[in-house]
Amino acid sequence: MPLTIVIKIGTSSLTQDNGNLAIATIATLVETLCHLRRQGHRVVLVSSGAVGVGCARIGLQEKPKTIAGKQAVAAIGQGRLMRVYDDLFTTQEQAIAQILLTRTDLVQRRRYLNASNTFQELFRLGVIPIVNENDTVAVEELKFGDNDTLSAMVASLVEADWLFLLTDVEHLYSADPRSHPDATPIHLVERMEELAELQVETGGAGTGWGTGGMETKIHAARIATSAGVRTVITSSTAPANIEKILAGEPLGTHFAPHKSVSSARKRWIAHGLIPAGKLYLDSGAVTAICDKNKSLLAAGITAVDGDFHHDDAVVLCDREGREVARGLVNYTSTELQKIRGIKSADIPTILGYEGAETVVHRDNLVLS
């Protein structure tokens, strides 16, 4: 049966120490992706590397520190990176497309749907989309921050079956194997809570060119698995392992998917939006939402945090601050400060006008 597969490869895997592209690695990756495509699978490549290639192109020894500097070298490197991909995919007679995304494209509902439709049409045409963050125009507060997160959100967007995070190690380890020789590999993570139980250590970016690290990959796995996408961390030096993993070989570290969010709208709420605030709930409200599929009422809110507007996304937390759900709110933060803990029937008297009966309707609510 055809699968939808998202594969992410990072800058440290795509480039050499001097920032130049590792052509042999890219060529092997391209062959693997084309083979998957010929088997009928829908394939998306999320590729870093533009900033590193741009720096090498103009002789910079390290990444710029300023946003403007990073955006400039990304603009220099993106064309070069895509040219290399196009040349290599052309030798395999495989058409590709470039998709550059900012967080805004996934935050705004209309643009989210447009992006989804574009991916589906490219799949129909047999094209492999190559995705990167649009670093040239992205502003700091609306950046994905790293392509691990971007790949997880793309996997949710396209309803992927698999997300492969290719990196410079074969597994997730209990500690960094480069500095801890006794670190043990982790083969399967059934629940994300297991990582804390196993006392897994995570570090920052692996090289001076990359922005990710194992911590961002775990964060990406959390996003993807909550959208029902099986996620695997495996080595970028052997892209052919992707096919072996799909065939059932026990390679890499697997993160088991959780119950999938069924509707496109709820996937957008869960993974596309940036929460603007938090609502803290009493135990009765948590039970109603989590166990009884009820909407959130003002009576169950104990505290309001943040400055948000009607229809903004908010995080719903229990009294201890643990996230239990996310949703679109029907009131502003100022209004909720006035009506929290109040019965719905009393809201018009307090606010002076008729408001919504629910604070977050169950149709706009997604459990975490």
Task: Describe the fold and architecture.
The protein has 368 residues and is α/β, with parallel strands linked by helices. The protein has 2 domains: 263 residues, Acetylglutamate kinase-like (Carbamate kinase), CATH 3.40.1160.10; 93 residues, Archaeosine Trna-guanine Transglycosylase, Chain: A, domain 4, CATH 2.30.130.10. Helix content is 38%, strand content 19%. The protein contains 14 helices and 15 strands. Strands 3-4-2-1-5-9-10-8 form an 8-stranded mixed β-sheet, with helices on both faces. A 5-stranded mixed β-sheet has the order 12-11-13-14-15, sandwiched between helices. A two-stranded antiparallel ribbon has the order 6-7. β13 and β14 form a beta hairpin. α2 crosses α4, α3 crosses α4 and α7 packs parallel to α9. The two termini are 30 Å apart.
Based on the model shown, name its key terms.
Archaeosine Trna-guanine Transglycosylase, Chain: A, domain 4, 5-stranded mixed β-sheet, 15 strands, alpha/beta, 14 helices, Carbamate kinase, elongated, 368 residues, single chain, 8-stranded mixed β-sheet, 2 domains
- For the termini, the CA-CA separation is 30 Å
Instruction: Report the CATH C-level class of the largest domain.
Output: Alpha Beta
The largest beta-sheet arranges its strands as 3-4-2-1-5-9-10-8
Which value, in Å, is the CA radius of gyration?
22 Å
